[in-house]
Amino acid sequence: MATEANIPKAQRGSLLRRAERAVRTLWARPVPGTATPASPREPTLQDYEPLMRALPDPAMLLDPTGRIAVINDEARKRWAAEPWVRFSAVLRHPPILDAVQAAMRDHGVRTIEFVSGPDPGEHFRCTVAPLGFGAPLGVAVLFRDQTAQIAAERMRVDFVANASHELRTPLTALSMLIETIAGPARDNEADRARFLRMMLAQADRMRRLIDDLLALSRIELDEHIPPSGLADLCAAAREAADSASPMAAQRDVRVEVRAGAHEVMIVGDRFQIAQVAQNLIDNAVKFSPSGGLVTVEIGAAANREEAMEAAGRRWRNAGRISLHTPPPGALGKRFAYLRVVDAGHGIAIRHLPRLGERFFRVEREKGSERGGTGLGLAIVKHIVSRHRGGLLVESELDVGSAFAVYFECAD
Amino acid sequence: MPEHTVKAFSEELDALANEIARMGGLAEQAVIDSIAAVVRRDTRLANEIIERDAQIDREQREVERRAIKLMALRHPFAADLRQVLTAWRISGDLERIGDLAKNIAKRTLVLNQSDPIQITKGIERMGKIAAFQLKTVLDSYARGDVQAALSVWMHDEDIDAHYNSLFRELLTYMMEDPRTISPCAHLLFVAKNIERIGDHCTNIAEMVHYLVTGEEMSAERPRAKDDPTPVDPSSAAGV
């Protein structure tokens, strides 16, 4: 039945080789004059395994049918792929699939660059090279991750644009005040003192802005490196509440931390988690009316969906949005959350999606200045993203707002 | 040689899966690029997306052809049958996603003829979520990961919430300044297209669930609270 036509091309070769081997064993004694070479075994892709293991970057070898034959640890970690998996189930970016197919066909080496996934995706420079002499053995696919490099470049550009725009406002105010002091107010003692105080406030604002911008760019720089270490949500909340107390007292706002006696440990950078708690609590205090109450609650849930319910889906009539959603993680992981509730004016639904955007301030239209840089929530969002956690907001006008973060618990 | 037949059959199923992966890659790229084209007002990129859509259509016909051939010649049953059926249906969803991205690109060409509108940030965020959903659901298909498919299905409400909020914002814009009505209307359709891309992602998620478990998804999907239809013009103008 097996006519040549219905045997796949890849198999035809192996049938031939099998036949050849059979003939060789039949004629077991060596024919004089046709000495067999030192290594009669044909090379296989598995022979390259030690080499692949030695490569510092992700690398794979594909067999001629397009399945993974050999994969090194770097690639395994990144894509959770195993040998025998179809390559297209791991990466489906059209240029790289085309390059692999073309390499099988014409034995040429290709280098392509591609971005995997939605913005800010992972940037790879990828070399596709065929292996084997004559009969194609397979294709080597070697990757170089350029994500960090490109992120750093983009950040430099963004930083300059954002920073110069935001610094211009206090700077304009400063130079106008200087002009006034040097000119019309030169001889008026009282005016001079008043203007100097205003100048100090503006300089203060510039310093806060620069601090926040630097913090933000530091966080962004290692956003794609998962944190190691452990952080206690309860401790972070208590410390943040303590350091917010002077501002709270000034505004006559009470901060109440509701946490159990036990610590709630998550995998995370302790300082960054502390910053998350600090920014959320500071914001809540800032937006609470005098005499208001800010509650901070810490809890744990059996899985991600339950944590999201508990952290951000409590109020029936509130508008809500998920500002950051983590990628689907492992099954059966416990999650912990931190929820900060204020009794402020609430945020209109149409503003919710823009929260966490740099320099976005809800109250800007009302013209009131609360001394925020508009970067606090952006910092929170980036830290949460690095920790593969989530950030939820629910808000109801004249009732208040609740900001919640949730993270995977430490084992 | 029954072994040979089975091998050829599994190779054909592989080829079908490869085709879906390639289509998915193309659709993903089209979605990401179309959002970038709107946000950056990139006419060249928009034209490129419009041109590339024919490729997705071709791939879809190829998937259909392969699926029909497989069913006619191999009479697959159980898991194999599900694999062929879901590939067919997913190719339909991906083709629609490609069309929606192309439509966004076409509207970009029109939008670029009027003054920029400061609302594209919202479009960018919404598009990012949709692209992420598409990536997650395609990964879940490639890995047979029901959990990931479920999470896509659950999180469609995020896109809906963004859509509702954008809808209100655009309405406010149009009422404030009638000159922006034409570009805003186009942006409204862009947002609607992204929202529908999200819906196709949930369709694919349902297919993945069916493919892996053999059962249909039964749970009720959470919905975004705010329905965009009952908008009171006077209240929107007052904000």
Describe, in plain words, how this protein is organized in 3D.
The complex is a heterodimer of chains A (411) and B (239). By secondary structure, chain A is α+β, with helices and mostly antiparallel strands. Chain A has 3 domains: 10-29 and 42-145, Beta-Lactamase (2-Layer Sandwich); 147-225, Helix Hairpins, CATH 1.10.287.130; 227-408, Histidine kinase-like ATPase, C-terminal domain (Heat Shock Protein 90), CATH 3.30.565.10. Chain A contains 10 helices and 13 strands. A 6-stranded mixed sheet of chain A has the order 7-9-11-13-12-10. In chain A, strands 2-1-5-4-3 form a 5-stranded antiparallel sheet. In chain A, strands 6-8 form a two-stranded antiparallel ribbon. The two termini of chain A are 59 Å apart. Mean pLDDT of chain A is 83; it is low at 364-368. Chain B has 239 residues and is mostly helical. Chain B has a single domain, classed as Phosphate transport system protein phou homolog 2, domain 2 (Methane Monooxygenase Hydroxylase, Chain G, domain 1), CATH 1.20.58.220. Helices cover 83% and strands 0% of the residues of chain B. The longest helix of chain B has 39 residues, at 2-40. Chain B is elongated, with a radius of gyration of 20 Å. The termini of chain B are far apart. At the A-B interface, β10 of A face α1, α4, α5 and α6 of B.
Q: How do the strands and helices of this protein lay out in sequence?
A:
The complex is a heterodimer of chains A (411) and B (239).
Chain A: H1 9-26, H2 49-54, E1 59-62, E2 68-71, H3 73-79, H4 94-106, E3 110-116, E4 122-131, E5 138-145, H5 147-182, H6 189-221, E6 230-232, H7 233-251, E7 254-258, E8 265-267, H8 270-286, E9 293-301, H9 304-312, E10 319-324, E11 335-341, H10 376-386, E12 390-396, E13 400-408
Parallel strand pairs in A: 7-9
Antiparallel strand pairs in A: 1-2, 1-5, 3-4, 4-5, 6-8, 9-11, 10-12, 11-13, 12-13
Chain B: H1 2-40, H2 43-74, H3 78-111, H4 120-143, H5 146-154, H6 156-176, H7 181-213, H8 233-238
Helix pairs in contact in B: 1-2, 1-3, 1-4, 2-3, 3-7, 4-5, 4-6, 4-7, 5-7, 6-7
